[in-house]
Amino acid sequence: MVELKTDASIDAMYDTGQVVAQALTAVRKAADVGVSLLELDEVAREVLNAAGATSPFLGYRPTFAPTPFPAVICASVNDAIVHGIPSRYRLRDGDLVSVDCGAQRGGWAGDSAISFVVGTARPADTRLIGTAERALAAGIEAAVVGNRMGDIAHAIGTVCRGAGYGIMEDYGGHGIGRRMHEDPPVPNEGRPGRGMPLRHGMVLAIEPMLIAGGGDAYRTDPDGWTLRTTDGSRAAHTEHTVAITEAGPRVLTARD
């Protein structure tokens, strides 16, 4: 069931979303050559704690997971697409890093992700990340009252496929509200004019996941969480929590 949020609830979700935005901004600032992924997780924890927020990631265990997730961010490096577990791995010059973070405060959840390069960026990585950001922007632009879910999916898929990138199989965005994952699913590829009508009060986590090699397949690490490209190519992941309103899409996790 899809819960339509009131305007007051959307305002409250914006407050939670700004905690996520602050955490990602702090993580991006701290990310440098020699910094470990565990240290980045600690940076995010400090932001959440200071804001009186908790993490919907920490301890989360969906049906596919062999163990609860042990961190407050997902940190996915190079060929890891999503769900990377922070470790003692220390960042190297040229690493492509995707960080996903969530927050829970006041009964509402927020969820967002960024991709960036540490140190010197390869042109191919800059193009990949830029395309992921354009795909996210296109999906947000299509998230308007009167459109359908397929319009969001088509907008994202058109940008990704047009640039020659793969789109991760079986994964996409999701509804969000009182819990991090709610109905409806938000695919990253689809046909325009199809699917659920978009209504005022729907809140969606829109999240393109791009594979540089052009294929859509992935594999799962032995940890049961980290999902990697099968061809070893790099990946990028971007995400925002977006409210659909009569005035247009409102990005609740927007970063300054």
Describe this structure in words.
The chain has 256 residues and is of the alpha+beta class. The protein has 4 helices and 14 strands. It has helices at 7-30, 37-50, 123-141, 149-162; strands at 73-77, 80-82, 96-105, 108-117, 166-167, 173-175, 182-186, 203-206, 209-211, 218-220, 227-229, 235-237, 240-243, 250-251. Helix 1 (7-30) packs antiparallel against helix 2 (37-50) and helix 3 packs antiparallel against helix 4.
- Given as residue ranges, the uncertain stretches (5+ residues, pLDDT < 50) are none
Mean pLDDT across the residues is 98
User: Structural class per helix/strand content?
Assistant: alpha+beta
Counting DSSP E segments of at least 2 residues, the number of strands comes to 14
Task: Give the terminus-to-terminus CA distance.
Answer: 33 Å
From the structure provided, what is the oligomeric state, counting identical versus distinct chains?
A: single chain
Overall helicity: 25-40%
Categorize the overall geometry: globular
Instruction: Tell me the β content.
Output: 15-25%
- Helical region count? 4
In what order do the strands lie side by side in the largest sheet?
7-6-8-13-14
H/E element sequence: HHEEEEHHEEEEEEEEEE
C-alpha-based Rg, rounded:
17 Å
Biggest β-sheet: count, sense, barrel? Answer: 5 strands, antiparallel
